[in-house]
Amino acid sequence: MSGRLRLPVSGEMFRTVVANTSARALAIAGLTLATVLVARTGGPSAVGEYALLRMLPGLVGVLCVLGLPGALAYFLAAPRRDLPRLWPTLIAIGFGGALLGTVAWLAASPVIAHVFFPQESTLMIAAAGLTVPTQLVLTLGKTTLQGLEDRRGGDVVIAAEELAFLPCYLLPLVTGIHGVAAIVIGLGLADLVVAVEAWRRVSRLLGWRRFGLAADGLGWFGRPDRALGGQIASYGLRGQVGGLITLLNLRLDFAILGAMAGPAVLGSYAVASKYAELLRLPGNALTWVCYPRLAKLGQAEAAASARRMIRPTLIGILLAAIPVALLTSPVMRLLYGASFGPAVTPARVLLAGMLLAGASGVASAYLYGRGTPGLNSIVLGFGLLVTVVLDVLLIPAHGALGAAIASTAAYLSTDALLIGVLLRLSTPSRARRSSTVQATEVSA
């Protein structure tokens, strides 16, 4: 068994990471095409509103499900996936969180409209709350495929969730609906279309007998297990802190910049940020692929596997950064037009912040896989502190460039700390002792 579960740096692992990175690149391509269309029809202000509507409802949803997306891969790894009443418990948490998130958005819509969308009606922003449950259902379907190790299915969903927006956005446009209304409709329809495919794949993996009909508490429906729910919430909340901090590190500058400088400046910065995040794709892919695999390996073997991947990921990202940086200006001007020229310099600054992202992706996967997501969250919390302090200091005077400098400092400091934690915890002596830590955290 140990030989079959060994996690190599090359071969099958390399192909899996390349496939996942390719899926994420397709997603970026779809997002780019959609952003170009939004930019051409509405200008930088529309792009800023699009960026906020993609971020804020999803953030609300994730906050309300007790970290369930981050916990799924851990509890769906063998042998935990066969725990009695696991699925009813997962579904209860997901359904309750979706309902809570929608109500919370509706209640806060006047404030959200005033702060982030001053030119839009409160009613329209309240309607955007319908994307809270649609984004959540899609996210849970995607992370369930990750936990069940359907790598091909997960890659399809990752690519489709961005590619699907373009035709779904075109639909309201051709019927005469424009502006924020078209964006909200496009986002909601795209979420539903891709979520149906994700959960179809999940039900096929589990088998139709498992699809609500299995006995002994192994089906999808039934009475939730409160104790098991507590374990899932405990793990999920510790991981959710890190996931939320990661999202805030990536998008808090969007919110602060949008509130301080308005949608037009935010639109240019959003384009710069998405371009720079091309270098983060391999790191995200490594986390996605390695997390469920490391979760089922022995501690010493998982530690050795993670350490072996650090050097090649560092070198790979550094080599990839050179052509991406050189192409920044022609790509920006060609795709988005002269009005997005101010995005070039922030994009190049943000690219520097991505240089350690590959190795830090391995580090996050290792910390989640060994059952210690809280350590990941603590490290990411430091990066969030850097983001907040520097955003407040730099954005008022330097706008988008200040946001880029703040984010770059946060990315580099956080990634360096994660790599340092991985190197320290994965030494042979510590790896042998870590199984006790894992057992303590899961039962906490």
Automatic annotation (TrEMBL):
<feature type="transmembrane region" description="Helical">
    <location>
        <begin position="59"/>
        <end position="78"/>
    </location>
</feature>
<dbReference type="InterPro" id="IPR050833">
    <property type="entry name" value="Poly_Biosynth_Transport"/>
</dbReference>
<keyword id="KW-1133">Transmembrane helix</keyword>
<keyword id="KW-0812">Transmembrane</keyword>
<feature type="transmembrane region" description="Helical">
    <location>
        <begin position="348"/>
        <end position="368"/>
    </location>
</feature>
<feature type="transmembrane region" description="Helical">
    <location>
        <begin position="314"/>
        <end position="336"/>
    </location>
</feature>
<feature type="transmembrane region" description="Helical">
    <location>
        <begin position="180"/>
        <end position="199"/>
    </location>
</feature>
<keyword id="KW-1003">Cell membrane</keyword>
<keyword id="KW-0472">Membrane</keyword>
<feature type="transmembrane region" description="Helical">
    <location>
        <begin position="21"/>
        <end position="39"/>
    </location>
</feature>
<dbReference type="Pfam" id="PF13440">
    <property type="entry name" value="Polysacc_synt_3"/>
</dbReference>
<feature type="transmembrane region" description="Helical">
    <location>
        <begin position="375"/>
        <end position="395"/>
    </location>
</feature>
<feature type="transmembrane region" description="Helical">
    <location>
        <begin position="90"/>
        <end position="117"/>
    </location>
</feature>
<protein>
    <submittedName>
        <fullName>O-antigen/teichoic acid export membrane protein</fullName>
    </submittedName>
</protein>
<feature type="transmembrane region" description="Helical">
    <location>
        <begin position="401"/>
        <end position="423"/>
    </location>
</feature>
<dbReference type="GO" id="GO:0005886">
    <property type="term" value="C:plasma membrane"/>
</dbReference>
